[in-house]
Amino acid sequence: MNRSQEFFNAQGELIDTVYNDVSWDMLRNLRDEELKNSDWRFMSDQSPSDEWIAYRVFLRDLPQNYPDSANDAADAWNEYEIPE
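Request: output the structure for the sequence above.
Response:
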């Protein structure tokens, strides 16, 4: 989840980056949707990779791992390398 917006001038140079605040409700909704969209990887006829297993654990643990800041949780999610 990327909460940053970058602004460029006419020459394509970065002039500002703005970080939007996110709420836990927004983050949980997006996380729940991501988990739902990847459920098919865990059906009985699939063999999920270790990377997918770790990613889903990471998503489920976001509130516990970043209890003080939904923004920190969103930033960590943005930096996480999502499996292919």
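Helices lie at 24-37, 50-65, 70-79.
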